[in-house]
Amino acid sequence: MLKSIALGAGIGLLAFLAVNRVDIWPLVFVLALVGVFYASAMTGRVNLTSGPGRQASLPGIEFSDIGGQNTAKSELQEALQALRRPHAYAALGIRPLKGILLTGPPGTGKTLLAKAAARYTESAFLFASGSEFVEMYAGVGAQRVRQLFHAARSSAKKQGRGSAIIFIDEIEVMAGRRGQHQSHLEYDQTLNQLLVEMDGMTPQEDVQVLVMAATNRVDLLDQALMRPGRFDRVVRVDLPDREGRRRILELHTRNKPLGPDVELEAVAQETFGFSGAHLESVCNEAAILALREEKATIGMAHFKAAVDKVMLGEKSDRRLREQEIRRVAVHEGGHALVSEWLAPGSVSSVTIAPRGMALGFVRHVPAEDRLLETEAELRHDICVCLAGSAAERLLLGEASTGAANDFEKAWEIARRIIFAGLSELGIVQEEAVSTDVLYQTVHHIMDQERDRVNGFLEGHAHLLEALAGRLAAQETLEGDSVRNLIAEGEIA
Ligand code: ATP
Fold first, then answer.
1. What is the pLDDT at residue 95?
2. How far is CA 442 from CA 425, 447, 449, in A?
3. Which atom of ligand 1 is nearest to the CA of 244?
4. Is residue 221 within 8 Å of residue 215, measured between CB atoms?
5. Angle formed by the axes of helices 461-474 and 479-491, to 10°?
6. Does domain 322-488 have CATH number 3.40.50.300?
7. For 39, left (φ over 0), alpha (ψ -120 to 50), or beta?
8. Which residue of 60, 365, 396, 446 has the fewest CB atoms within a 10 Å radius of its CB?
9. Nearest protein CA to atom 23 of ligand 1, as residue
């Protein structure tokens, strides 16, 4: 309204001056400049409340749409009772919860949980990312925090809701420890404003605001944020276990036609360490592969190929030279043979088709999710890592640079053995072990395992030769083919 009156008055004034033969162009120029400046300032402000990804209406996600995460879901639902039953809480004088922090690796469903929380409590939902509050200019971040809280209250009122949930993803970007950033004044002001807003939230307001935030670096957060009365609930959102993975796969295949051979349980078993986002991608990739083959349903082979793709990247069209094919086949054959020797049934497939950065790879079947590992299991893993280069040395006379990554992994496992107190050093503290002693001990472990692997491969060179030959010819072998070949070779 005010804007229209000002605009009308301005145009009238310009017309009056023009009629009276006053030169109006300098004035028009100045007004145009002011207009541009005002518009750009407004764009910055509007950005906060209507920028991409922001959502003020009720999200369509429910807790039942989130697979696994049972502990996180029930902890969260319990904490959300304050918004669902405000009167019961008030009657007992319970201070309502102001903040809930979701912590855990990327892609595990933290954003989904926040959206489901908004639906569960029928709250207005506002989404922001920590990086949106970080600006070079002092005061801008703090102003955006104020606007965000204001927008949360007003959109809840507009939608006729009694509560609003503000979700801040990657909160560590705006709420890291104060005094540590180069432009620390700006960071500190932004965080201070967040603390002020949270402290100002009272049960008496007509709109109850709950701040939910997510991070995978809880160690970086300012301690003031974690004190009781601010984010006093921390909900851990971990990578899903096997059951959780199966459930997530079920959810993401609800809208997809699956072939009769598909066993999601088996896919779940092979995807240890995958997050929900990885699993969603596996389902999507499997469907894309089925479409590429013009199939009406998605089969188990599509899922297997999709797992490889998500784990290692797209098949590359790098063409290997003849000698390279033989070398990669010997290398991967070595890994597969030693893996089957130490843990029969452990190879899911082995291939020499280049994919991502890898020229070939062995896919293992994790029998169970391994949360604890014994010394023997870790030493087995080192043997499997060392087997590729040992096989090359045995059949081709020398090893190649292809084993660098294997050695890195083996080195890391040996360090784990040492710092878990499982090596000859006994129980040690990381800081108390000198680089020299660490180096010697890792070497000792490596030497022991390399001798073991060399001994085994020398005694089974004929099997290695047969496996490498079959791999070079067929490119990919399933675990069962590897085991059949070993069984035939051993009888012969
Ligand atoms: P980041 O920390 O990277 O922001 P996040 O933990 O917030 O990740 P989300 O954004 O919630 O992860 O999940 C990304 C996608 O992964 C979702 O859109 C969904 O498709 C899938 N996803 C992740 N976890 C689950 C789950 N538990 N159940 C079903 N789908 C999931």
1. 80
2. 11, 9, 11
3. 27
4. yes
5. 140
6. no
7. alpha
8. 60
9. 276
Task: Provide the residue ranges of all domains of the chain, joining segments of one domain with +.
Answer: 2-44, 55-236, 242-312, 322-488
Determine the distance separating the centroid of ligand 1 and the alpha carbon of 165, expressed in angstroms.
18
Q: Give the list of residues 6+ apart from residue 396 with CB closer than 8 angstroms, or none.
A: 326, 327, 330
Say which residue the tokens 């080192």 belong to. 382
Q: Whose CA is nearest to atom 1 of ligand 1?
A: 106
Q: Which of 285, 247, 246 is nearest to 268 (CA)?
A: 246
Residue 419: CB atoms within 10 A of its CB come to 16
347 beta partners: 364
**Sheet of 347-351: strands edge to edge?**
361-364, 347-351, 476-478
Instruction: Tell me if 300 sits within 8 A of 307, measured CB to CB.
Output: no
Q: Is the CB of 250 under 6 A from ligand 1?
A: no
- Closest by Cα among 315, 329, 345 to 470: 329
Q: What are the tens digits of pLDDT across the range 31-75?
A: 776 665 554 444 333 344 433 335 556 667 899 999 989 999 999
Q: Which two tokens stand for residue 429?
A: 């503290």
Q: Give catalytic status of residue 332 as yes or no.
A: yes
Distance 278 CA to ligand 1 centre (A): 9
Q: Is 112 in the pocket of ligand 1 (CB under 6 A)?
A: yes
CATH fold, domain 242-312, is: Helicase, Ruva Protein; domain 3 (1.10.8)
Residue 261's SS3 state is: coil
State the pTM of this model: 0.74
Q: Ligand 1 within 6 A of 163 CB? A: no
Specify the DSSP class assigned to residue 401: G
Across the strands, what pairs with 350? 362, 477
Pairing of strands 163-169, 208-215: parallel
Q: Is the pLDDT of residue 419 over 60?
A: yes
CB atoms within 10 A of CB 73: 20
**Rounded to an integer, what is the distance from CA 393 to the centroid of its chain?**
38
Give the span between the Cα atoms of 234 and 142, in whole angstroms.
24
Pairing of strands 124-129, 163-169: parallel
CA distance 79 to 122: 15
Nearest ligand 1 atom to alpha carbon 277 = 16
- Per-residue exposure over 155-190, b if at least 16 CB sit within 10 Å of its own CB, e if not: bbeeeebbbbbbbbbbbbbbbbbbeeeeeeebbbbb
pLDDT digits 0-9 by tens, 116-165: 999 999 999 999 888 887 765 566 788 888 989 999 999 899 988 888 99
In terms of CATH, what superfamily is 55-236? P-loop containing nucleotide triphosphate hydrolases (3.40.50.300)
